[in-house]
Structure formats: structure tokens, C-alpha cells
Amino acid sequence: MNLDTFLLMRHEIGLTIIVLLLLLADIFMEDKKKVNTVAVALFAIYTAIGFVPMDSGELFGGMFSTTPLIVAFKNILNVGVLLILMISVSWVNKKMLPINKVSEYYVLMVSSLLGMFFMISAGNFLMLYIGLELATLPVAALASYDMFNRKSSEAGIKLILSAALSSGILLFGISITYAITGSMYFDIIAGNMGLSYLGILGMVMVFAGIAFKVSLVPFHFWTADVYEGAPTPVTSFLSVISKGAAVFVLMILLFKVFPDMKGIWINLLYGLSILTMFVGNLFALRQTNLQRFMAFSSIAQAGFILLGFLSVDELAVSSIVYFIAIYILSNIVVFGAIQAVGLASGKYEMDDYTGLYRTNPKISIVLMLGLFSLAGIPPIAGFFGKFFLYSAAASQGYYMLVFIAVVNVTISLYYYLKVIRASWLRKSDDSIPYFESDSFLKAGVLIATVGLLILGVASPYYEYIYSLSNIFN
Amino acid sequence: MILGVSIYEILTLSTIIFFIGVYGFVTRKNLIGMLMAVELILNSTALNFVAINKYLYPDLIEGGIFSLFIIAIAAAETALALAIIINLYRLVMSLNTDNLETMKN
């Protein structure tokens, strides 16, 4: 192994270096407030380096593989985490600086991302499992980070217990596939899997283990409580980065490891997609807490993502990756607005947002753009993300499912507009007073909003992803 | 390989342990009890890997190594869960899930 092949895992090496430097910064820097700036600056430099083009290749005897598509997806996640770090600076300064827990926050978040990268690049079930655990355990610690808040600890324990259950189910599925094929390598498993009842059991259990992370419907019970109790930046990390990485891994597993059982998992995805969309949307209708509302909204969005899986070709891959990129940006915009309002006033209920436009016009414009993007209103990027998912499903003739999805978009429009109505159309005497957020939060939300508007009018990015999407060979 | 014991008995045992774990996870009302149930699930899978490796594919020790990783990661998971449980106990003075629940639909 020489340096060139070793640099194939450039992203992972970069993240490890950031973790080590942050631990050193915690020891040697007197002023803990500066650790925030150091962390964001380091991660920004690393994100910029990540865009340097890279060849595809394999490391460690096929355990770790990388392709241009994986690199592009890692860059998407990098940008998302950078924006989340920028959003979380003001929260860390206000809540965590007094109890001296600044740098651990960044260390945990970056190491969780490291786990996701190993999970995405895995070519072997052992690597996949270790990456999955490395991605999950720091997030559970982050969810209970606000240690004097009872809700936060409750969110943490719910997340870790359900994650442990899900990884147990995943492991049982892996052991069944191992029993059938005698190997852990994805290539060998794909060649020897065949179609048998035992194999179907293994595939369903592996699917269920990943579906916990994506929060598809029978496995979504933890989502709402964890999202509500966890601190806002951690919730945004869980809802976009964690979910995005899990969707990508689910796609790789189904398309490349279990292609023999396509006829079975297509039906599974068809049913789960309908169930997930309806349950997510109908529960979101009756929520009043904004973080809980965003939890059910993200469950419904996971249902939409499943539509893209149904055409098992390049269109499926590119539409899913493109949708995740847009979903990351739009959710970060919404969570940035929730974070700004929550930090200034301590309010997270929908009714508290009445009359927000009169006192804080900028933040309500940003919130409106983010929610419009999630709902899929044309000039903004979210519409195109959904459009490509529908066209992927329609290309295989699933018109009924597309119709059901459109019905669900209409339902979702109602509850997204409820927030917008509260902040724009209603008047209130005790609306949240005018506030200034700090520059990091402003910059993060601004970049995400501009990204949404640009992706909404510029199509080259989708074509770029489509040109990378050939993972079938 | 154990004389007189076929792979069917071992796989039956591990499946039974797995479902005892799932049952315990769903019915237990105590956080430590739920943690123990999860440990049962993870241990049943480790047993599965070792048995499959030894009986079906004895040439390579992939399964055995996998079970080592499962044990190590399960320990890390338990340590983290216990840390959160201790913090929660300090705040609430109870480990019963009925007393802990503050968030409802």
C-alpha cells in the first residue's frame, strides 16, 4: 500500500485529524470560547479539501471502497455538517460554555460523521456494523448532552436503547446471510445469495435494522420523542445527516448485496412507503411542538424517499442522492430558524410563532422558504427533489403509488402552511420580540437558503449526480 | 464442534435467546431490565456467528472475529447507556419507564 492508495480514504483521515486537534485544543486553549471558532474553521478547511476530485478504488482487501458517487455523497454530508456546526455555535456558547462542555460537542459530532463515512464506504458487513455503531453511539451521547435537562436525558436513553435493539436485529440478519453464503464481503454475498426462505428472512432483518435509522413506519416509535427531547442542533443532525447516510446505505445494500431478491423487497418498499407517508403526515397534523412536528415531517419525507428506490437503475440512485442533498439544506434552514427563535426566547410551540413576521421579518422569510421547500412548492429546490423521485417511480409504471404520494403532499402542505400562517397572517400582542442572532448562525442559515434557491433554478448539479450514478456493473 | 450436538440445536437455542430478548425489551418496565434484554439479543447473535463459523465454514474464522467485535461494541454500548441511566436517575430518582415518560403524542 503506497500513499496514493492510502489517500483514497482522505475524508476519513481528515476527520480523524480534526478529532485529535480538537482534543488538543481542549487541553491547551485557555479561552474555551475560541474552540468554537477553531472547530468551525477546521471543518470548513476540511470540507473545501474534500472537493478535490478523487479516483475510485479499494483498500484493505475490499473492506473499504470508494467511487465518485460515494465521494460526492460524502461532500454533501460534509457541507451539511458544516452548516449544522455553524448553527450550533450560539447554542454551545450560551448553554454549554458555563458548564465547560464545549469541545466534546464537536468531537462527538465529527466522530459520528466518521462512522457514517466508514458505513457508506463499507464493502464488508463487519465494516458496516462498526461504522454504524460509531455513527450511532456519539449521537446518543449528543442527544443527552444537555445533562441537567430531563427531556434531553430521556431522549438519549430512548435513542441508545432503540439503536441497540436495531443493531441486534441487523446482526441476526447478517448472521443468516453469513450462514447462506459463508462470507461477509458484499461481492461474494451478492454472487451466492440466490432466492431462499432463509435468505428472505436475513434480508428482511438487515432491512429492518437499517430502517430503524431511516425511521420507516413500523420502526419509527423512537423518532418523535428523541427529536423533541434532544437539543435543536442535535435534532437537525439526526434528521438530516444520520437519516441521509442510512438511506444511502440501505440503497447500496438493496441494490448491490440483495439484487437476487428484488421481487421481494420491491413489494416491501411499496407497502412501507404508503404506510410511512400516511402515518408521518397524519401524526404531523396534530403536533404543536415544532421539534416534534419536524420529527413526523421527517418520517413522511422518508416515505417519499422510498418512492425513488422502486426503479432500480441510475435514475433511482441519482434521484435519491439529489433529494437527500436538497432535504439536508431545507431541514437545516428550518432547524436554524427554530434554533434562533428558541435560543432568543426559549419557545418551541407553534402558537408562539404568531406575529413573528411583524417583529422578526428576516427569520420568518427564511422559515417560509425552508418549509415551502419541504412541502415542494415549485420555484424552490424541494419541488425538483420530489419531482425526480416521482419520475423514478413512474418510470416503472407505479402510477397508483405516485398518486398516493401526491395526495400526501397535499396533506403535508396543510401542516407546513399552518406554521407559515401563524407567523405571517396572524396578529398577536405578545409575539416574540425582535432579536439578533450571532454571525455564525446567520451565515449558516443564509448559505443554506441561498443553496436552496440556486439548486431550485440550476439543473447542472442533478446532471452531475446522474453522470456518477452507475453503481450497477 | 461439540460431539453429539448438531448445528440445529445451537441455532434453536440462539433463536430462543433472541426472542426472549425481544420479549423482555418490549415488556420490561425498568431501564436496567431493558438493557439486559438488549444484551441477550446481542449475545444470541454472537453465539450464532460462532456456531455457523464452526459447523458450516471451519476454514476461515470470519464469524469468530465478528463475534469478538460484537462483544466489544456491546460493552461500549452498555457503558454509554449506563452513563445516561445514572444521569437520568440523578434527575428523576427512578428507573421505572412509567415515571420517566414526559413526552406523549
Account of the protein in words:
Chain A is mainly alpha-helical and 473 residues long. Helix content of chain A is 76%, strand content 1%. Chain A is built from 20 helices and 2 strands. Chain A has a two-stranded antiparallel ribbon with strand order 1-2. In chain A, helix 2 packs antiparallel against helix 5, helix 4 (68-96) runs antiparallel to helix 11 and helix 14 packs antiparallel against helix 19. The longest helix of chain A has 32 residues, at 150-181. With 105 residues, chain B is mainly alpha-helical. Chain B has a single domain (7-97), classed as Helix Hairpins. Chain B has 4 helices and no strands. In chain B, helix 1 (7-27) packs antiparallel against helix 2. The longest helix of chain B has 31 residues, at 62-92. Chain B is elongated. Chain A binds chain B through residues 125-126, 129-130, 133, 137, 140-141, 144, 147-148, 150-151, 153-154, 156-157, 160-161, 163-165, 167-169, 171-172, 174-175, 178-179, 182-184, 224-225, 228-229, 283, 286, 292, and chain B through 18, 21-22, 25, 31, 34-35, 38, 41-42, 44-45, 48-49, 52-53, 56-57, 62-63, 65-66, 69-70, 73-74, 76-77, 80-81, 84-85, 87-88, 91-92, 100-103, 105.
How would you concisely characterize the structure shown here?
The complex is a heterodimer of chains A (473) and B (105). Chain A is 76% helix and 1% strand.
In what range is the share of β-strand residues of chain A?
Answer: under 5%
Q: Count the strands of chain B?
A: 0
N- and C-termini, Cα separation of chain B: 51 Å
Radius of gyration of chain B: 17 Å
Q: What ranges of chain A have pLDDT less than 50 throughout 5 or more consecutive residues? A: none
How would you sum up the major sheet of chain B? none
So how many helices of chain B? 4
Categorize the overall geometry of chain B: elongated
Topology order of chain B in helix (H) and strand (E) letters: HHHH
- What is the H/E order of chain A? HHHEEHHHHHHHHHHHHHHHHH
> Quick check: average pLDDT of chain A?
90
Q: What's the helix count of chain A? A: 20
